[in-house]
Automatic annotation (TrEMBL):
Pfam families: AAA_5, AAA_lid_2. The keyword Nucleotidyltransferase does not apply. This is Magnesium chelatase subunit I. One of its GO terms (molecular function) is ATP hydrolysis activity. Keywords: Ligase. It comes from the Archaea. Residues 62-250 form the AAA+ ATPase domain. Its EC number is 6.6.1.1. It comes from Methanococcoides alaskense. The keyword Ligase applies. InterPro entries: AAA+_ATPase (IPR003593), ATPase_dyneun-rel_AAA (IPR011704), CHLI-like (IPR045006), ChlI/MoxR_AAA_lid (IPR041628), P-loop_NTPase (IPR027417).
Length: 374
């Protein structure tokens, strides 16, 4: 090869490189266009307690969230993401960025207050959604951003809503919730305390409704959750790998089937999904008719005293969860079984531990308390 040819070669080199780039770009475009096919929640094998905790919150958002603890590969994220497909519909004010509740005029955002004044409120039904809060999200992205210069001139127009706005009246999902930055945890705690998100910059403050269901998942091997946040989340479930051989085989088979033919797999579970949706809707309609008896409340109080919990939040959470569980099971009354199921999810992270003492939650002790043998 002579030197003259080198120049020629150099000129030719960019061509295949460019071609390669185009191909890569094309792949990128296709990748972003392809909607990820979701694994249906009713196709999950086992993990009943986790699924129940998620579903009960979907029926009754006032329960106050779920923390799912467990190792990787135990279907935690699959379950939470799959929940989106079976969530009931809610009524929202059309076009509102904060999903304002037409029935709750006291919590309207400023835009809806304005619309109401002008008689322009329109209502629509939309399914509840699962809103992701990624662990690395910036503060502006989470709470919203405020352009100070613009705020002085144009007022609230200068506010760009964040994830907490989108999550109002929906499910806020935080995978690896134990790895959240402190400023996000503080924002979540503030919002959870007041059901309002407030952004303050240089003396200017904007608030909007932020009443969401926190669903967190975490691998405890990677660190614990801040106690204040732990206390705010009503239910906790531990998920473990399944040891039943037949169930494990079933998991492999279903995963392979889903990977080979996702749409076909989804079709196979369509009727299960419909059944689950109908059951949730029925429970949502029934819950208002169910109330705890004095005896139910005594049982709950007795449990909380026996398990040495802090404060009274646990009692309230057990009552709400038990009532919702009764509705889900199609019962008109709360049974001791409902209370036991609820307590199993509310108590484990709320027992006051004495120094140097590893007090473990025991389901047997719980049954003994409820049945009056303790
Ligand atoms: Zn609004």
């Amino acid at each position: 090869m002579s030197f003259t040819n080198i120049a020629g070669t150099i000129r030719e080199v960019p061509k295949p490189v460019e071609k390669k780039r185009t191909t890569f770009d094309e792949i990128q475009k296709t990748a972003t266009k392809t909607k990820r096919v979701m694994y249906p929640i009713s196709g999950i094998v086992g993990q009943e307690m986790m699924l129940r905790a998620l579903i009960l919150n979907a029926i009754n958002p006032s329960i106050g969230g779920v923390l799912v603890r467990g190792q990787k590969g135990t279907a935690k994220s699959t379950a939470v993401r799959g929940l989106a497909e079976i969530l009931p519909e809610i009524e929202v004010i059309s076009g509102c960025k904060y999903n304002c509740d037409p029935m709750d005029t006291d919590t309207f955002c400023w835009e809806c207050v304005d619309k109401q004044r002008k008689g322009q409120i329109k209502v629509e039904k939309v399914p509840m959604k699962v809103v992701d809060l990624p662990v690395g999200a910036t503060e502006d992205r989470v709470v919203g951003s405020l352009d100070i210069e613009k705020a002085v001139k144009e007022g609230t127009q200068a506010f760009e809503p964040g994830i907490l706005a989108n999550a109002n009246r929906n499910i806020l999902y935080v995978d690896e919730i134990n790895l959240l930055d402190d400023f996000v945890v503080d924002a979540l705690l503030d919002a959870a305390a007041m059901n309002v998100n407030t952004v303050e910059r240089e003396g200017i403050s904007v608030s909007h409704p932020a009443n969401f269901i926190i669903v967190g998942s975490m691998n405890p091997e990677e660190g614990e959750l801040r106690p204040q946040l732990l206390d705010r989340i009503a239910l906790q479930v531990e998920v473990e790998g399944i040891i039943d051989i037949e169930q494990r085989v079933e998991i492999i088979e279903r995963r392979n089937h889903f990977n080979d033919d996702p749409q076909g797999f989804r079709r196979d579970f369509e009727s299960e999904q419909d059944k689950l949706r109908a059951k949730i809707l029925k429970a949502k309609q029934a819950i208002g008719r169910i109330s705890a008896t004095r005896d139910n409340l005594r049982t709950i109080a007795k449990i909380c005293v026996a398990f040495n919990v802090d404060g009274h939040r646990a009692d309230i959470m057990i009552e709400r969860t038990a009532r919702t569980n009764a509705a889900y099971e199609g019962r008109e009354r709360i049974t001791n079984e409902d209370i036991i199921e609820a307590a199993e999810m509310v108590l484990p992270h709320r027992m006051r531990k004495k120094p140097f003492e590893e007090e473990e939650f025991s389901a047997e002790q719980l049954r003994a308390v409820v049945n009056g043998t303790v």
